[in-house]
Amino acid sequence: KKQDNNRCRDENPECEILANRGECDKNDDTQIMCPRSCMLCPDQQTVGKKQDNNRCRDENPECEILANRGECDKNDDTQIMCPRSCMLCPDQQTVGKKQDNNR
């Protein structure tokens, strides 16, 4: 069912990180908690829904440097700003992907 734009918002502050990790595709709970970050709101719908790779890009020109320093593992803000350099984009996910279990 369709949600109106005012009600279609993320319920969790971690939504952007989860979406950048590809959790929207893997986890129904993430879609429910994070409709805006998962691009499920009516005002975000596009015909060719494969726009994840465009959305998943670094927002800071220093991202590659930060990633090389290990900031992706130490700093959630770096993950949000630099999902591509931190290898968190859905198109970068591989079978043996790095998990964040020891944080």
TrEMBL record:
The ShKT domain, residue ranges: 8-41, 56-89
Domain of life per record: Eukaryota
Pfam families: ShK
InterPro entries with a match to the protein in the record: ShKT_dom (IPR003582)
Protein name as it appears in the record: ShKT domain-containing protein
